[in-house]
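Archive transcription. Copying these from loose printouts into the bound notebook so they stop getting lost. Printout 1 of 2:
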Amino acid sequence: MEEKIYYKDDRVKVTDLRITCNHVTVPIEKIENVIVDFKVATMTVSVSLFMLVLLLIPLLCYFYGPYGCWGIILLIAGAFWLRMIYKTYTVLKISLGTRTLNILETSMPNREYIFKIEEALKAAVLDVSSGANMAV
């Protein structure tokens, strides 16, 4: 029996039997739900803290002199954190009973890539579940 391929590229392969992504394989029949999640709260907090530190640097330097340079260190750390959240903003999750697995993460501009995989995965899950109902 040959597998029906719903989506395939260098990192992800979705068939009627399994999804393989980043060297992790999950059987389609065990997948209950497919979710695309956005890290909105984390992104909001990181942007807010970055802007707060950016506004506080002149005050820190004015009142504390050389010790105000800690504000620059905080700004660099905030920028690094913001970049990390930005690179993993969109998350593709699947639920397997009580467990939820993060299958793939990507940045904001690449969220269409996640949506393509989500569509293929939902089609595969729907085909497998409808095929199981027919067989019964």
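Printout 2 of 2:
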Amino acid sequence: MIAHARIVRSILAAVAALGLGTACGGPVEEPQPEVMEETAALDRDAVENEPSHKVEDLIGALDRAAGVLHVQDSAEQIVLQQLKAQRTGTAQYVTKDELTGDTTYFTVTRHPWREWPLLFKMCATGEVVFSWVPCPTSIYEDPITRIWQNASCTRRVQAAAWGICNNTFDGNSYDIEYREAWRCGVGTGFCVERRAAKTVRYDYALAYCNSGLLTNVTPQNFDYLCMR
């Protein structure tokens, strides 16, 4: 029954993807000791081995909000393959993100290599964005899916685990799923990076986290992640 409940919650989380919900009030959920210890170790390792992304290694950038994929003209086919994009018309493509479940329709704008670096700027947080886009104040506000070369999805920043069930003061309950999370690292291939949730909160009517009484699924704790 416990395994079945976990499967039900995972399916609902996938359906929720990046949709936001209103979480119930109550005590703040604390990670289990083993989760906290492993996650802290992974975070330390991630900081120590943080790769220095260079604009010349960025070969494609999909503006999901605008529906435009900007690419180096010589790397167009590679970028489309990495996005697993399908043509829907003479000038339009569609891609379904394997990590978030989001579907994006887009057109392609090609740029010569000499002009490519001029399209981007580095934000104070270290994120590369289009020169005409304000630097996001939070990860969730970042609208860009980035495709890197000389990279691979090799940096695990969070282990998969479940938090304990928490009963709230109003008689409801919730628990937290900690998803295994990876970031792009230095490599010899390609890596697609986008914002995605590292944790998901599940709210339930009544106490003790009965999966049959699930009322809300809320993705939380966003990071720039890749699909392993």
